[in-house]
Design goal:
Blueprint lengths: L12 H11 L3 H8 L4 H14 L4 E5 L5 H9 L4 E6 L2 H4 L7 E4 L2 H7 L4 E7 L8 H8 L3 E12 L6 H21 L11 H11 L2 H11 L2 E6 L7 E8 L2
Parallel strand pairs: 1-2, 1-4, 2-3, 4-5
Antiparallel strand pairs: 5-7, 6-7
Helix pairs in contact: 7-10, 8-9
Length: about 240
């Protein structure tokens, strides 16, 4: 196993992929616990937003073990749905019948010829070595006037910041190393939830995401959750 972290604690693609492979079997249950059971309601909000656009095609990029994909597939049986992820261990959890592609997202965005009415990036952008390039290149896969959706963690503004910092940067790394990732065999400081806290620290894009979307030439950029929340949900339209 090889891990290469940059100065901001971001892993190179190889190290990151191995972390996600390791998480695959426990990703859903641990994400529900770590989110204090809020994960399904965040996903529901994404689904409600997507539903409002009545898309004919949806790509879930960095789909993980496919909770959102399965919900979308059940609710929109007539919509063409595709999941993309570079972790084959994650994709093994996705039922046959849902189309998937095992590929680094930038390679997929550069080489695929498909375009989708909706492209989803949920809890994916923050971990990328160059989020701006991802936003720019992924636009190739959004149909004209189609929507990009970004769901990510954010440090809330106001009093909730203190509780968030305590939880995310103190409690979560401790809980992870003593309970959630006890059987992790890689370097301690790169254990999944410790790394999550570090990558959130490096995730300065949270504040600049709207500008980053403008720079990538998206239009109609809208927030769907308040800045006082622990997750951000944005949508943008691919203007051509
Ligand atoms: C934190 S999980 C999020 C999973 C799912 N989208 C969700 O909201 O629960 C990030 C997923 O993105 C995948 N991923 C991260 N970076 C990627 C990349 N550069 N190319 C392809 N997949 C990537 C990981 O393998 C993992 O399954």
């Amino acid at each position: 196993m090889s891990y290469h972290a940059d100065l901001f604690g971001r892993l190179s693609e190889d190290g990151l992929k191995e972390t996600f492979d390791w998480m695959a079997d426990r990703y859903h249950s641990q994400t529900v616990r770590v989110s204090q059971s809020r994960y399904p309601s965040w996903m529901n909000q994404v689904i409600t937003l997507v539903q409002s656009w009545r898309p004919r095609s949806i790509a879930d990029v960095g789909c993980g073990p496919g909770y959102l994909l399965q919900q979308l597939h059940q609710r929109f049986p007539d919509t063409a749905i595709k999941g993309v992820d570079y972790s084959s261990a994650m994709l093994r959890h996705i039922p046959a019948g849902i189309s998937t592609e095992c590929c680094p997202l930038l390679d997929w965005a550069k080489t695929s010829s498909e375009r989708f009415d909706v492209v989803l990036l949920t809890f994916v952008l923050r971990d990328q070595p160059d989020p701006q390039t991802v936003l720019t290149v992924i636009k190739n896969r959004v149909a004209p006037h189609g929507h990009l959706v970004v769901l990510e963690t954010q440090t809330p503004t106001g009093w909730r910041k203190w509780g968030f910092d305590l939880y995310f940067h103190a409690w979560l790394p401790w809980w992870a190393s003593h309970v959630l990732t006890k059987d992790w065999t890689g370097p301690r400081h790169l254990a999944p939830y410790r790394r999550l806290a570090d990558s959130h620290r490096a995730w300065m894009q949270a504040r600049v995401l709207p500008n980053a979307l403008v720079a990538a030439d998206y239009a109609d950029i809208r927030p769907h959750r308040p800045a006082t929340d622990v997750v951000m949900l944005w949508s943008a339209v691919a203007a051509y």
